[in-house]
Write a structure and sequence with these properties.
Blueprint lengths: L1 H6 L4 H19 L4 H18 L1 H16 L1 H10 L4 H15 L8 H21 L9 H9 L1 E2 L2 E2 L8 H6 L4 H29 L8 H20 L5 H24 L6 H17 L4 H13 L5 H12 L2 E3 L5 E3 L14 H9 L6 H23 L4 H4 L9 H7 L17
Antiparallel strand pairs: 1-2, 3-4
Helix pairs in contact: 2-3, 2-7, 3-12, 5-6, 7-12, 10-11, 10-12, 13-15
Length: 420
């Protein structure tokens, strides 16, 4: 660990300087040699670092959202190459390269914190060994060695021997209890953070490498903290526990206000949004972005988003493209996947099917004959003696002969004598 920490020695001086500045402030309140002054200095260092990493966190969220937009394409690749895992992985990597996304983007905040973490470890290890490091001079070194957090010195470790702890004016029992308790809290907070991400903020309809990565981290990181935590000084445990708590709170905020589409968190968010919109009759500024994105999806909306749009339609509200909501006519019919009312879709299904060419040729002459017959009958004169014989029309000669009693192609029937 000393070798790894020494690689980040270039940042040791800035980290030690920040700790000393915070110690000056808290030392004036709690006393320069107290565990509160040094412990709160480390906590403040964490908060400062995490505030500086907020732009990187925003970039991480955007990269995660970009990964989520690719999930339909990922699903197609999985279905197409479900029997060829190697080809499936190759197509996934090709998709990431074409779209400029990175499935490992969720690790960026952790990687960015690593230099500060190892620099702090280097500083605290120097305090434990009685060495001045960075801007920590001999007087500050003696003050830090006297500081105790819940009975454990700032530079004490779980694996320290009794003689080493006696030099720091501490008992092995108190040090081991404090360090074990902090390691358990550190591992539990890390596990809860990852589990919250997997159970609430992941679209489970698509299996992606991102999900497998997060599932692995959910179990690997707590074990890593438990194994390596016994070699961390108490000050480093304070640093890492504070980091985990910050990450957990930050993630809870994101899941609550900007959940992943298709996740359980989105279902809960849209339910809250529906109650808010129906109660106020409008969307607030922070809600317009979500509604605008849902409207823009059209027929690509997921189950929870379609339920939200249908719910607004039933109470007479219509979501607009700019994210606002206006009043409209209440509709009892729900919308289909492409946004069409089910009544209109049913009407389309009830329309007669278009006939084929052979069907039109079969039914065409019959219909034409019926039309010709009706026209011929209606055009016949009512009084033949007045108007004279009607001229036979083309195609009606056989019918005219049949009406006059003549036989077609045979001997004619004799006419009856006229009555005078």
């Amino acid at each position: 660990m000393d070798t790894i920490a020494s690689l980040f020695s270039f940042i040791t001086t800035p980290v030690s300087w920040v700790i000393v500045q915070f110690h000056t402030v808290y030392g004036a309140v709690f006393g320069p040699d107290t565990g509160w002054a040094w412990g709160l200095s480390i906590v403040s260092l964490v908060i400062l670092i995490r505030i500086c990493l907020i732009p990187l966190f925003v970039k991480q969220i955007k990269a995660t959202r970009a990964m989520q937009t690719l999930q339909p394409e990922m699903k197609k690749i999985q279905e197409r190459y479900k029997n060829d895992k190697q080809r499936q992985s190759e197509e996934m990597m090709k998709l990431y390269k074409e779209t400029g996304t990175n499935p490992l983007s969720s690790c960026l905040p952790i990687l960015a914190q690593s230099p500060f973490f190892f620099a702090l470890y280097h500083v605290l290890n120097g305090i434990a060994n009685g060495e001045t490091i960075g801007v920590i001079n001999q007087s500050l070194l003696e003050s830090a060695q006297k500081a105790h957090i819940l009975g454990a010195p700032l530079a004490a470790k779980f694996t320290d021997s009794s003689s080493d702890l006696a030099a720091l004016d501490a008992s092995p029992t108190s040090v081991r209890i404090v360090t074990a308790f902090m390691i358990v809290l550190m591992s539990a907070s890390q596990f809860f953070t990852q589990r919250q991400l997997m159970t609430k903020n992941v679209d489970t309809t698509v299996k992606t490498p991102f999900m497998q990565q997060q599932k692995m981290l959910m179990y690997v990181f707590p074990v890593m903290f438990a194994v390596f935590g016994i070699n961390f000084p108490v000050g480093v445990l304070v640093y890492w526990l504070t980091t985990n708590v910050w990450t957990m709170g930050q993630q809870m905020y994101v899941i609550h206000n900007n959940p992943t589409p298709g996740s359980k968190a989105q279902a809960a968010y849209l339910e809250r949004l529906y109650k808010s919109v129906t109660h106020h009759g409008k969307t607030r500024r922070s809600e317009k972005t979500i509604v605008k994105a849902i409207v823009a999806k059209g027929r690509d909306r997921n189950e929870y988003e379609r339920k939200f749009i249908n719910g607004l339609s039933k109470v007479g509200l219509v979501a607009q493209a700019d994210g606002t909501v206006v009043k409209g006519e209440a509709q009892t019919a729900t919308l289909t996947e492409d946004g069409t009312p089910t009544s209109a879709a049913a009407a389309r299904r009830q329309q007669p099917k278009r006939q084929t060419k052979s069907q039109r040729q079969t039914t065409g002459p019959k219909a034409a004959g019926e039309t010709t017959t009706s026209l011929t009958k209606s055009d016949e004169p009512q009084d033949a003696e007045t108007t004279g014989p009607a001229k036979p029309k083309p195609g009606s000669a056989g019918r005219s002969k049949a009406q006059s009693g003549q036989r077609k192609g045979g001997p004619q029937r004799p006419k009856s004598p006229s009555k005078k």
